[in-house]
Amino acid sequence: MLQAETLQLLCLTATSGVPLFSRGSAKQLPFSIIGSLNGVHMFGAGHGAQLMSCETDRGSRVVWGVFQESLMLIAVSGGGGPAISELQLRRLLENVWNCMVLVLGQDELANIRNVERLKRELRSCFRLIDMLLERVSDEQGFMGDLTQCADCMLLSHSGLLQEALDSFAQAAESEFGCLLVHGRVALATEKWWSRLTSQEVVVLSVLVHSLSGASSCDYPVFLPQGSPTVAIRLLSFQLLPGVHVCVLCGPKPSLYKAENELIGRFWSTFVENLRSCLEQAKHSTLPPSVSLRWDIQALLLINRESRRAVTVCPRVRSGAPSEATPLLSSARRLELLRLFYTFAVTRYFICQEASASTTSEDFSKGFTHVPVQCYLVTDECKCYGLQSSQHQLFVLMDLSVPTFALRTVATQALSAITAATGF
């Protein structure tokens, strides 16, 4: 029987079902259950059926994924904890696979020569995998693991920092550079956005965030889509605690030269600008010039063209009347935002990536149009989503907002953010 309040990730060889690792809940699933989960999938495959997911009557959910016909990943969520959708578990499997390719390369995973050696090598992925598991229900507002868009923060007056980043990347003989603030992409070079896939940007951001304890790092990485078999150097440097700059480059420059010559040359004059970024990050992912209504509890804005996303979860209400109800906890609002995003993209909005769920509302079948707006009223908040050719917006609002005004509030928020930031 699956225990309540668990989230576990299992990795086995696809052909023989040999367990390679288990991460997640402190209480590991018994070997008999792991064997049963593998056995039922193999039984289905042997009879021409592809078992992708199942759900128990107690709310537990299991999702299977086979990658390169070599490794099987199984995500198991128990009932009783935060609600985790099938889409979320499916994306978790994809992100874990991308992280393993990022660290070890596709050849090492697709062509298993020695199982015991692979077990040892996979340990180098555990920190990344654990961070992905934590992000499924964390309170920091990261959504990239679910949306497969880069988690960003939008800076005010970013022109000077953008020039510094472009010049630094050019001096490092690279076209791929990125500035991260507490794990979120604040700025990046043009090629970082145009040549890397959104999934690659997500896992690279997680990797750099996981290396935050190091002042500098020279790390070989394999791009899951762009270069899965040939390693590229990732140079990462801590400019200030919480602020990192990284580039993808070839054999030059050396880590010593980049750290002792290039960092000082291009970043020493921007220390105060970087401190301002840190100060902004304490309060919001939006610049101070953007003012949202007090009755917006949280929002997720996605740029569909660049596959970037910004999540806003205010810590306090600004300008709220005295009779306003208290904010829900940050953890609960982020959980509701994840659930509403899943609800919208699996039922109404076109999802560009492969979706774990093929559910659609009956009324939409047979119609030629695609829904561009939807709303949901719950006991805790009202939710509104809208989609345009460039953006997707998902907003949680107070119950006090009249239902007929949801669209107006959402469109005003979208206009305020895009007008001030060009996002």
Automatic annotation (TrEMBL):
Record localization: Cytoplasm, Cytoskeleton
InterPro entries found in the cross-reference section: FUZ/MON1/HPS1_longin_1, FUZ/MON1/HPS1_longin_2, FUZ/MON1/HPS1_longin_3, Fuzzy
GO terms for cellular component: cytoskeleton
Keyword Transmembrane on entry: no
A Pfam family of this chain: Fuz_longin_2
Major localization class: cytoplasm
Domain FUZ/MON1/HPS1 third Longin residue range list: 296-419
One GO process term, biological-process aspect: non-motile cilium assembly
Record has Zinc-finger as a keyword: no
Keywords, sorted A to Z: Cytoplasm, Cytoskeleton
Domain FUZ/MON1/HPS1 first Longin: 9-132
Protein name stated in the entry: Protein fuzzy homolog
Source organism of this protein record: Cyprinus carpio
Source species, domain of life: Eukaryota
Stated family: Belongs to the fuzzy family.
